[in-house]
Amino acid sequence: MTQPPPINSAPHARPRRWWLPPALALGVTGMLAAALLNPARNATIGGPLVGREAPVFTLSTLDGTELALQTFRGRPMVLNFWASWCLPCRQEAPLFRELAARPSGEPGLVLLGILFQEPSDAAARNFIRDYALAYPSVRDPNSKTAINYGVSGIPETFFIDTQGVVQFVDRGGLTRERLNAGLKKIGVPPL
To answer: What CA–CA distance (Å, rounded) separates 131 from 171?
Structure first.
């Protein structure tokens, strides 16, 4: 007669890897965050809009005032897509403060910030206050304007001439040299 197997003699069970799905999710999230914070390392200038008319928009400032791109036709423009959580945006903010503070001739340069996936108006206001930015920034609900401009990460800056044509695009945080290259393309003296 055979004997029954002992009570605790279950076949060898594989250890559960409960940590694997959260670890994979964390890794994918980290890669997406790195890509968004460091856009297009290999391509810092140019894009499909160069030489084309800038997409028009009407957006609201943090104070609720509506601003339309068409209002500034005939003046050179610099559009900067940014967010308070963006580290390269913090690095380039002093250049924009300096650009906004200098006197300009007629027709004067228009500098406009466009908030990109900004989670909080308060955070945007704090950023503006901390860097003493003296130009308007507008909200971009659902990133519709960013999509129209082909923004893939921030910061991205568009230099638009007096005819409303995009002449230069810079991605990934401006240096003084790259800012001046864009200004030159739209007929604005360098910093």
So the answer is: 20
